[in-house]
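hi!! sorry for the late reply, been swamped w classes. u asked for the two structures so here they r. pasted raw, havent cleaned anything up. first the sequence of the first protein and right below it the C-alpha cells
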Amino acid sequence: MTNYNRWQIEQTGGPEQLGWVSGDLEPQGTQALVRHTAVGINFIDTYIRSGLYPAPLPTGIGMEGAGIVEAVGPDAHLVRVGDRVGYCTSGPGSYAEARLADEATLIPLPDGIDDETAAAALLKGLTVCYLLRKTFVVNDSHTVLFHAAAGGVGLIFCQWAKALGARVIGTAGSAEKGELARANGCDEIILYRQEEVAPRVRALTGGRGVDVAYDAVGRDTYQGTLDSIAPHGLFASFGNASGPPPAVNPMDLMQRGSLMFTRTSLFSYASTREDLLGLADMLFEAIGNGSVKIHINHRYPLSEAPQVHRDLEARRTTGSIVMLPGG
C-alpha cells in the first residue's frame, strides 16, 4: 500500500470546507488504483461541496480525472497495470493524487487523447454527447438555445452542435464571453445582463422559438428558457448553477404548445459499460476529426482546490479547468 493525499469534506458549506488528508490505498475486488496525472473541474463539484447534491459524509470530491493504473484488485480483468485511463462516472474522489475506482467505470484513452484533454473533456464532453445525440437528436434542421455558452460544457456544445449543422443561439454574461462562444460555433449571442433572453430568441427565430433549449443554470434562467421554446419543443434541464429551478407546472407546458420537459443525467445515459464506452467513442471521434477542440483555459496545482471553487462560483473562468498533482 502507498500513502496518497486527497481533498475531502467533513461537512457541507463553502470552499473552506475542503480539507487536505492522506491515507493508504489498496484495490480490492474489481477495483483499480489510478494515479492521477490530471484532474478535471466541474460545477457538480460545488453542488456536492455545498450540499445541493447530498452525499454521505465525509466524502471525496471531484468527478473526473485521468492517469495511470498502478495496481488492480484480484478480480479485475478489464484494465491492466500501466494502462492510461480516464473516468467521469466513478463517483466523487478525483481531487486526489490517486484514487480507487471500479474498473468498469474506467475508459481506455487512445493515443491521440492526452491526459489533460481527457481530464478536461470527459464529463463535459460526454454530457454534450448525450444531450446532442441521445436526449434530442440534433441535426441541420434545428435551432437550439444553450445557456452559459462560454463555459466548459458550452464551448464543447457550440462546436459540436455547429458541426451537426444546427443553428446555435447562446447566452453569455459579457461581450468577451460572447465572442468566445461565437468563435466556437455559436451563431447568435444573447448578453443576458443587457437584454431578456426570451424576447430576443423570438426575434431571432421569427417568433417561433427554438426546437430545444438546454439549461444548466437553473433558477435564474428557468422562465426565460420556458418562454423561448417552439411548440412541441423540448426543455432539457441538466444543472442548477444558480440554484434549483421551480417545480414544473404541466399546464405551463400545455399552454406553450405541448412542450416536453426532461431533467437529464449522464449517469443514466452511461449506466452500463457499453453505453459509457459508446459515448466516449463518439467524443473521441469528434475531437479526433476536429469537430471539437478542448479549450483548457485554466490550470491550477492540485493544492489550490479551494481557490478553484471560488473562481468557478464567481464566474471568473471560461472553458475547461484542470488541476495538476505535484503542485
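now the second protein. again sequence first, C-alpha cells right under
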Amino acid sequence: MTRARIDYIPVVYVIGLIIGGLGAMMLLPMMADIIAGNGHWQTFAILSGFTLLVGSAMVLATRSSINTEKQTTYQQTFIMMTCIYAVAPVFGAIPFFFGAPHLDPIDSLFEAISGVTTTGATVMTDLESQPVGILIWRGLLQWIGGIAIIVIAMAILPGMRIGGMQVFMRHNYDAFSPILPRAAATARDITIVYLVLTLACMLAYLWSGLSFVDASVHAMTTIATGGFANYDDSFTGLGAATEYVGVVFMILAALPFIRYVQLNAGNILPLIRDTQVRGFLILIGVSCAALMLWQSLDSSAGFEVTLRKSLFNCISILTGTGYASDDYNSWGSFAVTVIFLLGLVGGCAGSTCCSIKIFRYQLLLANMRVQIRRMIFPHALVNVRYQGSKVPGSVMTSVMVFFVVFLGTMMVSSLLLAMTGLDFITSVSGAAAALANIGPGLGDLIGPTGNYQSVPATAKLVLIVTMIMGRMEMLVIYAIFSRKFWRG
C-alpha cells in the first residue's frame, strides 16, 4: 500500500504569510518608540526587516506551486495550526531577546507564546519602566492570537469534529449559513467585529482616564481575553471606572463573535436564544453573588467595592483574561476554590475565550439528565438535546473524550511541574492556568500578585508546551504524534 505524501507547500506558504505579517506589525512599536523619543526603535526596525525577509522568502518560494483549486487536507490543516502556535511565536520572541527586556531565550519564548496563545502569564517585571514599544508589542501578540483563535474555532475546528465543535455546523448558525463553505467571508466579518470592539474598548478606557498607550494596549489584551497589562500590579490602582470598563468588554469578548455578525445583519434572535450565552451570564451572576456574600461576612469594604472586585476578578478568571484588581488569594479558601473552578469553565465557543467552554458542560449535563431518566424509565425513548435539536452520539463521545484528555493532560503537566521542585499548589494551579490559558495561578509565586519569573527554566518549558496544547484544544497535538496521521 502506497502512503499518501503530505504536500507541505501550502503550510510553508501560510506560515510565511504569518511571519511576514508579524514583521509588518513590528513597525507599529517601532513608530511608538520613535514618537516617545527613545532609541529602542532601531531594534524593532532591524527585526522587522529580518522577519519580513524570512516571511517573504517563504511566500515567494512556494507561491508558484500553490494549487488554488485543491482543497487543504486535514493533515495540512493540523500541521498548519501547530506551526502557527509553535513557529510564529519564535519570531514574536525576538524583540524580547534583542530588545530592552533582554530576556534569555526561554523567557523570551515563554513571553511570546503566552502572548500568542492569549494566556497572559508573564515573566517580565518592572513593566512601568519598559519602553513603550515593548508594551505595545506584548499587546499586539495577544491581539493577533485572539483573532486567530476565533477564526480557527469558527472555520476549522467544527469540520475537524474536535471536542464537540461540530454542533456549531448544524443548528447554531442556520441564520448565517454553513461555516466551512464561507470560511473567508466568516473570517472577514469576524475581523470587522473584532476591530470595532477593540476600538470601542480603547475609547472607553480613554474615557475612564487611561493614557492613549495604556488604553490601546489594554483594549487589545481585553478583547483578546489575554490579560497582559502595562503594570506589575495589573489593574490594581487603575480606578473604579477602568475596572467597570474591563468588566463590560471582557463579557463582550467572551460571547460568540458570530452572534455580533448576525446582530449586525439585523437578526437578534440567535443571540437571545443562544443557550451557552444564557448559561455564561447566569454563571457570572451566581458566582459573583457567592463571592460577594462570602466577602461580606469577613470584610470591612463597602458594597460597591466588594461588588466591583468580585465582578472584575470573577469575570477575568472565567473568561481566561487573567487581569487582577485585588489579591484574591487573601479572600479565603471558599473564594479561592470558586475562582480556581471558574478558570476550568471558560466562556463561549466562538469567542476569544479559552478553557473547556460553557457549551461542553451544558452538553455533559444534558447527557447526565438523559442517563438518569433512562435509569428510572428503562424503556423511555429520550435523547440528548441542545438548543432544541437532537445531539448525535458522535458529538457526545467527542465532548467526553475532550474532558478526559483535558483532565489527563492537566494531571501529567502537574506531575512534570512538581518534578521541577514546585510545590503542590503552584504545580496544579500552574498546569491548570497554562492549559486553560488563564495566566495567573494560585499561591504567592504565580498568583495574582506574582508572576512566572522565578519558575525554574525546565518548568517554563513544560508550561510552554501546555499553553500551546490548551490553545489548540489538545487533540490536534495528540493527532500529530500518531503514526496513522503521517501515514495519511
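hope this helps!! also noticed smth abt the second:
The CA atoms of residues 279 and 358 lie 7 Å apart.
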